[in-house]
Amino acid sequence: MGQIQLNQVTKSFGDVQVIPPLDLTIEDGEFAVFVGPSGCGKSTLLRLIAGLEDFTTGHIEIDGKDATAVPPAKRGLAMVFQSYALYPHMTVRKNIAFPLRMAKMDQAEIDRRVENAASILNLSDYLDRRPGQLSGGQRQRVAIGRAIVREPAAFLFDEPLSNLDAALRVGMRMEISELHKKLATTMIYVTHDQVEAMTMADKIVVLRAGHIEQVGSPLELYRTPRNLFVAGFIGSPK
Ligand code: ADP
Ligand code: MG
């Protein structure tokens, strides 16, 4: 399960309202992409969903239950950070297991989950290495593995590929899409890259200055952009 619903959510930093009242529903199992120019509020919105940032007003429901006051660790959502957030001195196994050890999970269950994640991500042969001994793509997979082992209701990605080179980015994009097919878990993916949005999304949420310009499938946005901003961003002729 992983339906996420935002109701009249706003966020201000001091006097500056960066998210005006916003309503949004992400359906269970959906691959949703938040896209928009730098500074439009994508990361803030994702952090609000993750619970890493408090709402100024409004509330969030996860699977129909009010989660506004639920702390991040208890929301059942897993944020995927860029690969440089790995611990360099720990093995791949320990990096992936880290959130489960923090949660004091039983060691046999930790081993089972880590091995399952490693097998899904083709990392089984690399569990004893350290991040410095891996390629960029492998490191990014370890960062994803750390989310998978938590068996979250939804994965939250904030521009996870932005520090990878172009060729690797294309490969990882396909790997994340494959992972979504395999797990059928809700994913919210933030990017400023329209190609990523168009190729990966079930639903694209186009943001501009903290508000939603349009929500729709890639085809809907391409065929019937609501305005020039969406058309320009999605790259459709208008
Ligand atoms: P994006 O991820 O789309 O680039 P952000 O969500 O990071 O955008 O930022 C949205 C707006 O909120 C920007 O104007 C940014 O300067 C502002 N902002 C983000 N975080 C903070 C913060 N901790 N304090 C003050 N302003 C912030
Ligand atoms: Mg951002």
UniProtKB/TrEMBL annotation:
Transmembrane region(s): none
Entry annotated with the keyword Transcription: no
A GO MF label: ATP hydrolysis activity
GO cellular component: ATP-binding cassette (ABC) transporter complex, substrate-binding subunit-containing; maltose transport complex
UniProt keyword Glycoprotein present: no
Domain ABC transporter residues, every copy: 4-234
Key words, A-Z: ATP-binding, Hydrolase, Nucleotide-binding, Transport
Domain of life: Bacteria
Enzyme class: hydrolase
E.C. numbers: 3.6.3.19
Family per similarity comment: Belongs to the ABC transporter superfamily.
Identification of the protein by name: Maltose/maltodextrin import ATP-binding protein MalK
Lineage, opening ranks: Bacteria, Pseudomonadati, Pseudomonadota, Alphaproteobacteria, Rhodobacterales
